[in-house]
Task: inverse folding
């Protein structure tokens, strides 16, 4: 049996990583290695001498992956569905951590939700041969500690408030009294506004009464002309006869 070359060793590492996912298995349709879950392929891999070719479904990182010099949309129309193919001429060109992240993304896109629920959150860890999940992800153990830390901080804050210097306590008391003072100020403003409205109404009533009195008063007669004097309407003297 011929010894494995470096590219085949890299393929073995990626294959082992892909098979570490829940219910993952491999198949060989058309002579190509296919890693599947629920009879659906999430990774294709082929080795030809020193060359390695692979394809994965990347619904989230497709655009970023296609900016790399060794990638292209997968043929047969799969590229439209988010599939990306990568081609490497030698094992030294394979970015193993990146390919493992692609395998994780592709598995999550293909696998049933009940299997994806068994995986840790993306960006925190990826499963491997030594950490293959066997049950649903447990709740983080740090939560009780976080709760106790929050309670301790609250207690420290309360103690600090009780032991605060007198000026701080006075300021706190003033802050508490502020709502009552605001209410009193609002009440004073309302009272002043009511008085002003009442004064305006009273003045308006007086003006209306005066106007009504002027309308009801009788019209004054013109004064009679003085005795011995003719009025302006007296006939003119007749002109003397010539």
Result:
């Amino acid at each position: 049996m011929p010894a494995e070359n470096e590219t085949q060793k890299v393929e073995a590492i990626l294959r082992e990583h892909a098979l570490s996912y829940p219910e993952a298995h491999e198949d060989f349709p058309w002579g190509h290695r296919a890693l599947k879950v629920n009879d659906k392929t999430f990774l294709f891999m082929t080795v030809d001498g020193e060359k390695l070719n692979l394809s994965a479904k990347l619904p989230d990182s497709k655009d970023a992956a296609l900016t790399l010099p060794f990638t292209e949309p997968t043929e047969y129309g799969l590229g439209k569905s988010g599939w990306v193919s990568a081609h490497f001429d030698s094992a030294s060109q394979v970015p193993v951590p990146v390919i493992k992240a692609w395998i994780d993304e592709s598995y999550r896109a293909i696998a049933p939700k009940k299997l994806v629920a068994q995986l840790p959150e993306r960006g925190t860890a990826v499963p491997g041969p030594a950490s293959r999940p066997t049950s649903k992800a447990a709740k983080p153990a740090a939560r009780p500690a976080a709760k106790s830390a929050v309670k301790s901080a609250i207690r420290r804050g309360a103690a600090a408030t009780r032991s605060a210097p007198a000026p701080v306590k006075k300021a706190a008391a003033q802050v508490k009294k502020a709502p009552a003072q605001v209410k009193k100020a609002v009440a004073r403003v309302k009272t002043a506004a009511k008085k002003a409205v009442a004064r305006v109404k009273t003045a308006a009533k007086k003006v209306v009464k005066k106007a009504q009195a002027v309308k009801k008063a009788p019209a004054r007669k013109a004064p009679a002309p003085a005795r011995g004097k003719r009025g302006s309407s007296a006939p003119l003297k007749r002109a003397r006869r010539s």
Summary: Residues 124-147 have pLDDT under 50 and may be disordered. The longest strand covers residues 40-48. The first helix runs from residue 6 to 19. Residues 2-117 form a domain with the Aspartate Aminotransferase, domain 1 fold (CATH 3.90.1150.30).
